[in-house]
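Let us practice reading a record.
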Amino acid sequence: MKIRVNKKIKNVGYCSKLILRACLIAVFFILLSVFGVMAVCWGDAFYNSSRGISKSPLLNAYVIVTESMVPTINVNDAIIVKRVKNNTLDIGDIITFSSNDIYFNGLTVTHRIVGKKLDVDGNYIYRTKGDNNSLEDTALVDLDNIYGKVVLRLPKIGYVQGFVSTPLGFVLSIIIPVLIVVYYEAWRIYKTIKQRYAEVEI
């Protein structure tokens, strides 16, 4: 009977170990991917600054705070924006830019391109509109004011950002990973002691 109990404990411990290891591996690869993207962005920024080139970041992230792009992009969704060349943008693309519109002057806005035309220098300037707005933006957008094109939407990430920015959220974001590691090590010690105890009894 004691041997059966020991086997059950061993099986439960093995499954828990596999699950925890899978979670830790997933977290590791996520962090590795994030680090890789950040390294590329830092390299791009260093290259441009060392040559005196003024460009927006290769990749950037924003949290949406208004309903102007509902239902395509909702409030508290996060977006990833990629820097693009002027003539690669087209009607239908969603861009993030510094607005000269009388209603949004100086604000960072994410709207859809609904029209474009060439200026006197042969560069495109764009007419934009929020999907949830009845009217187009009053001001055209040129390349100098465009941060980039939206390439990824992460639903509701803004809630996580808001929570982590609170004292409680900040503490939990540190304590929870620590507790996971402590639980893993405690379970390993418990399993080892239990196994040795069962062997002695047998």
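A brief commentary: The chain has a mean pLDDT of 82.
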